[in-house]
Description:
This protein is an alpha+beta fold. About 35% of the residues lie in helices and about 20% in strands. The protein is globular. Flavin-adenine dinucleotide binds near residues 108, 113, 145 and 181.
Amino acid sequence: MATAAGTAPPERERLTGAPDRAHLLAGLTVRTLDGPGRAALVADLRAVVAADRVLSGRGERLAYGYDATSERWLPDAVAFPLTAEEAAAAVRVAARHGVAVVARGAASGLSGGAVPVAGGVVLAMTRMDRLLGVDTARRTADVEPGLVNRTLSDRIAGTGLAYAPDPASYRVSTLGGNVAENSGGPHCVLYGVTSQHVERLEVVTAEGERLVLPHARDRAEGVPDLTGILVGSEGTLAVITRITVRLVPQAAGQDTLLAAFADPEAACAAVSRVVAAGLLPSTLELLDGTSTAMVERSAHAGYPDGAGAVILMEVEGEASDRAHQAAAAERLLRQAGALEVRVATDAAQRDALWAGRRAHYGAMARVASHLWVQDVTVPRPRLAAMIREVEAIARRHRLPIATVAHAGDGNLHPDIPYDPQDPDQVSRMRAADREILEACVALGGSITGEHGVGIDKLEAMALMYTEAELAAMTAVKRAFDPAERLNPVKAVLSPGAARRAGRTPRRPPPPSDAERAALEALRQARIAAAGRRALPVGGGRRAALAFPGQSVHPFVADPAGEGAIRVDAENLTVEVAAGTAPAALAAALDRAGLMLRTPPDGSTVGGYLARDPFRPHRATGLSARDAVLALTVVTGPTPDLCRFGRATTKNVAGYDMPRLWVGSWGRFGPIVSAVLRLWPRRETALWRRSGALAEVLDGADRLLSAPAAAALREMAVVPDPDGAAQAWVRAELPAAGALAAAGFARVTERDGDPLAELPAALEAAEIRAARGEAAILYAHGLPPRIETERLAEAARMAAGSPVWALPGARVAVCVDAAEPTGAARAWLDGVRAVGGEAWLSSGGEPWRGIAPSPPSAWLRLATALERTLAEGEAAS
Ligand SMILES: Cc1cc2nc3c(=O)[nH]c(=O)nc-3n(C[C@H](O)[C@H](O)[C@H](O)COP(=O)(O)OP(=O)(O)OC[C@H]3O[C@@H](n4cnc5c(N)ncnc54)[C@H](O)[C@@H]3O)c2cc1C
C-alpha cells in the first residue's frame, strides 16, 4: 500500500519548473503513497469530512500544489473542512496513514510555505471563512482562518474599529495564512506586525487534538506563550482553526506626503530624522531610483523625474493633529535634503501619490515575464547601506533589480525581473539572490522580514543561525510534532538537514565574559541539581516556578550581575544585560530621551522578561513580549549560547523563539541579554475621573474606543467597596480632547499617582501570593454587561485590598487570605460562566484554574518543550 521514505514514486517529485529539493527531502519521515494507499486515504478522509469536499483526481490535486513561488508539488488528496472538528478528524486520518498535512490558505505565500513537498493531505482552509463575532467593547474579533484579510476589514467597517496588519496581498490572503506567516504590511510601522494583533488561537495539534491556547498576553504566570510561538510557525506546529484578533480604533483620517531625494542615503537619513523626532507615521515607504523610474514609465504617477529615491509617508489622526504632524514632517524632509515634497489631504490626491507605489509590481511585469520577490530586513540605520549593496549586486550580475521598502521597519524587497527560459539569466538571478541574503546578514539583519522561510529560504537559515540555534528551533518542532507530519521540511532547518544539504551553520561569535559566566552557571547548576530541574532566579525576590510535581534546584542566572546597557538611539533599540536593575535602565533611557512602552519592574530586567507579569493597567494591551526584539539565552544539552531575533522590528526567519522565553520563568534556560524596542519619549499627563462605578467604567470604555486610544499609555479603574470608583489615565497630549469629552480632569502627580505605584503594588502582592500569604484573582475578557457587577463584587470581597481593572479586558484582585474563600472561587467561576478567562495565584501555584483549556493540555506541550530543548538535536 505504501512505499518507504526514500523510494518516492513520481508524485513526490517536483512538477515541471519547480526547483530541485531532493537534498532537503532526503530525511523525510512521512510516507509516500502508491495508488491503493492513496485510495484508502481518500476514502477515510471522505468518511470524516464529506465526499464532495475531498479532491482526489490528478488534475484537481495539481491545482493545490502551488503558491506564489515557482514551487509545484503534488498532494495525495485535498480536503476542505468546514469546522474545526472536521479539520481535527482529517489530521487524525493523515496520522493513521503516516502522511503529511499541509494547511493552505489563499496560497499567496512567497516562500513556498503551502506547497506539499512531501505529498500527503492539503487541508484547504478557505471554506472555514466565517466572521464569528465582533466584540466592540473588548475590541476583538473572532474569525475562522479562511477569512480573507480585506473581508474582515469590510465587515467591521461600521464599528469604528479596524484590523491593522495589511499585507499588500490583503485582498486575497487569509487571516490563517497571515498568522502562520506573521505577516507585515505598510501600516505595521505604527501598529506592529500580525503577532501583536493575535490574542488567542484555537488549533488542531499534530495528533488531531483540538486545543485553545492560553491568551497571548495575559497568561497565568509560568504558562509559556504558546500562542506567540505559533504565530509565524508556517503551519509546522499546529493547524489554526480559530483566531481572536485585536482591533484598533479606526483612524479619524489620513494625510499622505511624497518626498523625492537625490539618492537612497538622503532618503534613509530623512526616515531616521522623522523617527527620531518622535513623529509616528502610520506608513513610511521607500522606492529606490530604479523602481521610481520603472513605475513612472508604466503608471505615469507623476513621480519626480530622475529622483534617486522617493518616500511615501502617511500620518493619521484628527484633522488638526494631522496638519501639525504633516507640517512637522514636511519641515524634516526638506531639512534632510528633499528635492520636492507634496502633501495630499483628500482621497483623490492621496490615491494619486500612492498610484506609483501600487504600480511597482505591474511595472516589473513589463520588464520580464517572471519576478523574483526578495524580502530581507536590516536594522533601520543600515537601510541605505543595504540598498547600495543591492545596487552593486545588480550591476555585477547585469540585472535590473528594483527595490521597494517598508523603510520605517528596515524591511526591503529587492525585486528581480527575469526570464525563466533563459538559463544564464536564471543563474545570475540566483547568484544575486544569494548575495542579497549574505549582505543583509552581514549588516545584522534577517533573511526574511515578512514572507517567511517556507522551503525557499530553508537552506539560507544556515547563514543566520548557529548549529545550536538551529537545534533549538528543531527541538520546538519536535515538541509539537514528533513525527514531523505537519508541513515537513519548512520554516526551520534542522542541523541534520543542513549537513545533508552541505550547509555550514553560522559560527558562533566568541562569548563575552558575562555570557561565559552564564554558561558556566547553568553547567554547574545542572550538576548540582542531580536530577532535579535547574531553574534560574534573577534578583532572587521570587522563588523559581516549577511545573506541578517537579523538584527544583534554583540557581542565580546572572552571576555577572548588572551589565552593559547599549542604547542605539538611531535604531531605537537598547541591548541590556539580564542582571540590570530596571531603575538603571530607566535612567539610561531618560538620558537618551527615549522610553520603553512596557517598562520593566521587579529587581532585574531578565527576571521581568522571564516573568512577563500580568499588568492590567497597560491601556494599549502591550506586555513585556511586545518590547523584545531579540534575546540571548543559554539552552540545549551542552548548553550553548543562542541568539534569537535581531535588532529589527521585523524578522520571521524561523520560529519566534523570544516569545517562548518571555514569560517562561526560565524553564527553557536563562536569559543573558535582550534587545528591546524603544520609542522617542513623549510628554504625558495624568487624568482622573470619579463617580459611580458604572459611570466611571462607561467613560473609560468610551475613551478606549476613541481614535485617540493609541495615545493612552496606562489606565486603571479602582472600585471602592461602597460602589464608587476612580479611573486614572496617563496619556500623551493628543488624547487631551477625548479625555475631557469623557469626563476626565487633568491632575498633577502631587495629587497622587496610583498608576506609578501600581506595578510595585502588584509585584508585592504577587510575592505574598507566591509565599501563600495572600491570593490574587485574575480575570481577562469579562463581557462588559457583567463587568460592573463583578467589579463591585471584587471590591467588596477584597475588603480594602487593591482591585485594579482596565475596562472590558483585565482585572486583578488581591485578597488577604492564603486559601481563597468560597466567595473568591465563586467569583472566578462567575467570570468563566460568562466566557471570560480567570485564574488564581496563591501558594506558588499560579496557574490553578486557568480557563478555558484544561491545564493538562498546555502542560503536556510545555513539558515536552522543556524536554526537547534540554535534549537538543534528535538522532535523525
Ligand atoms: C502580490 C503579493 C503581495 C504580498 N504582500 C505581502 C506583504 O505586504 N506582507 C506580507 O507579509 N506578505 C505578503 N505577501 C505574502 C503572502 O500574501 C502572505 O504570506 C500571506 O499571509 C499568506 O496568506 P495565504 O492565505 O495566502 O497563506 P498560504 O500562502 O496559503 O500559506 C502560507 C503559510 O501559512 C500556512 N497556513 C495557512 N493557513 C493555515 C492555517 N489555518 N493553520 C496553519 N497554517 C496555515 C501554510 O501552511 C503556509 O506555510 C504577498 C504576496 C503576494 C502574492
